[in-house]
Amino acid sequence: MTKLFVNTAKDWLKVNGATDFLLTDVEVPYVVPEGYPVTPAWRDATITSFSPTLVSITNSLKRQARSRGAHAWGIELRYPAMTRASFAPLWAFLTNLAGQSTTFLLSLPAYTPLGTGSGTPLIAGGSQTGSSITTDGWSTGQVVLKAGDWIGIAGDLKVYMVTGDVTSDGAGLATIAIFPALRLSPADNATLSVAPYFTCALASDLVTVDFDQCVKARGFSVDLVEAQ
User: What's the whole-model pTM score?
Assistant: First the structure.
């Protein structure tokens, strides 16, 4: 079964092989199919950091703001003009997602770490919380990550951003400042990835493409949102 969306009280779930929907209290994990197609290759991307905030301004212009403690990445991929034959596999993949109901894995291979990223990094100690994590297994005495790098943690779908340069010590230990704060407390020795996959869904139920008179897809773009 595939999760469509979460209601604060209940989850609506699509029933396999049926056209109706089932209201249930049972939490069902996201279905992650094959990864996002690497061909045709996207031309450029816009990446958005979304942190919902409650803001109020009084008549005296005093401003009050409170973070909701939530965060998600938005990713828009834009493509050059493509023949129908080149575009068709991507179009089929996106259509087969059935709108926003299904998630998939997306890699951004151009965004390699600015630090060395070397070693076999692991979470050092369980029950960690907050906006920093202690890790080990890095190559020693190196700037292994820099501010703006991304990391992923095994067992957590969220992709975190590194907010300060990280240098490993002589034993390969390093403390990493991240945003947002940990959503889940990672397990001891959980694997840390410096080139994480984003778990994404379509940001809209609509997939629209313009074809010219030569049956070329022109100006195609797709909006994705991180699904956690």
Answer: 0.81
Phi/psi for 94 (5° steps) reads -65, -40
DSSP output for 125-181: SSS--SSEEEEEEEPTTSEEE-TT-EEEETT---EEEE-S-EE--TTS-EEEEEES-
- Let me know: does 161 contact 150? Beta carbons within 8 Å: yes
Mean pLDDT by groups of 10 residues along the chain of 228 residues: 37 43 40 73 94 91 88 95 91 93 91 94 95 97 97 96 97 97 95 94 92 82 93
What's the chain's length in residues?
Answer: 228
Torsion angles phi and psi, residue 225, rounded to 5:
-135, 145
- Phi first, then psi, for residue 175 (nearest 5°) are -105, 130
Contact 131, 178 (CB under 8 A): yes
Domains of the chain: 31-107+208-226 (3.30.200), 119-196 (2.40.30.290)
CB 101 within 8 A of CB 33: no
